[in-house]
Amino acid sequence: MSVENLEPFGARLRHAMDTRGQLCVGIDPHAALLTSWGLNDDVAGLERFTRTVVEALADRVAVLKPQSAFFERFGSKGIAVLERAVADARAAGALVLMDAKRGDIGSTMAAYAATFLDKDSPLFSDAVTVSPYLGFGSLRPALDAARISGAGVFVLALTSNPEGAEVQRATAADGRSLAQVMLDHIAAENAGERPLGSVGAVVGATLGEAGADLDVNGPLLAPGIGAQGATPAGLPALFGSAVGNVLPSVSRDVLRHGPDAAGLRDAAARFADEVRVAVAG
C-alpha cells in the first residue's frame, strides 16, 4: 500500500488484528539476546538479528515494534539497520510501531514527529510511542503529523514499570489521576472515529488493576506479556470491555526462540492463539 493513500492507522490496525491476531512482537536486540543467538554485540550481529526477526514474522503478525534505543546505541550504522527493518517489515504487511517514547515541546516535538510520522522520512512508521508528561498539549505536533500521514500515536498512560506510579497515579487539581487525565485526552482525540481511533494508550499488562477508565475508542498497547510476568489470560480482568482493542506486546519470550525462524514463528503463533482464546472469553 502506498503511504500516499494510507487509511487512518486505527482502521488499518483493526484490520490487522482481526486478520492476523491481536499481537505485537517487539524487536529488542539486547546484547544478551545477541549473545544467546551466537551473534556478536556489534552492527553485524544487530543486522543479522533484526533481519531474521523481520523475515520470520513480518508476513504474519499484526505489529512489529522495534525499540529504537537498541539501534541508536550503534550510531548511524545502527539507524541504517533500523531504516531497512522498518521498510522490509512494512513491505511484508506488518504494521510498524516505533518504540521511541519521544516527548518534548514546540519545534523539537515537531522534529521528532517529522522523523517518525512524515511519509517522506526513511524512518516513517505506522505509529510511534510518545510521552505526554510535559503536558498532553506538547504532543500536538505529533498528533497533527500522524493525522496527516495516516499514522498513529501511542501515549504513555499507565506503564508497567513500578516507578511510573509516582507520576501517573498522582492526583490532578480536579481529583483525577494524571493517567486518567491523559486517557481522557486520548478519548477526546478519538471521538467519532470508526472502527477505531488512531491515538492509543500504553497500559502495562502487568498492572494488578487499572483504576482508570480505559474506554478511549482507540488501541491499548499492553507491554509486559511473557518475561515480565503477565499472561494473555489476565487481559480480560485488567481491560474489561475494552479488551477487544488491546494489542498485547511480547518481546523476549518470542525472541529467545531465535535464531531459528520456525521457533520464532511458533512462539508468536502460540501467543496469538492464547490472546484469541482469552479475548473470546
UniProtKB/TrEMBL annotation:
Pathway(s): Pyrimidine metabolism; UMP biosynthesis via de novo pathway; UMP from orotate: step 2/2
Catalytic activity annotation: orotidine 5'-phosphate + H(+) = UMP + CO2
Gene3D superfamilies, per database record: Aldolase class I
UniProt EC number: 4.1.1.23
Enzyme class, broadest EC rank: lyase
Keyword hit for Lyase: yes
Transmembrane segments: none
Keywords of the record: Decarboxylase, Lyase, Pyrimidine biosynthesis
UniProt key word Lyase: yes
Active site: K101
InterPro entries: Aldolase_TIM, OMPdecase_AS, OMPdecase_type-2, OMPdeCOase_dom, RibuloseP-bd_barrel
Domain of life per record: Bacteria
Pfam family, one: OMPdecase
Annotated GO MF terms: orotidine-5'-phosphate decarboxylase activity
Orotidine 5'-phosphate decarboxylase domain ranges (all copies): 22-267
HAMAP family listed in its UniProt record: OMPdecase_type2 (MF_01215)
Family: Belongs to the OMP decarboxylase family. Type 2 subfamily.
Name of the protein described by the UniProt record: Orotidine 5'-phosphate decarboxylase
Gene name for this UniProt entry: pyrF
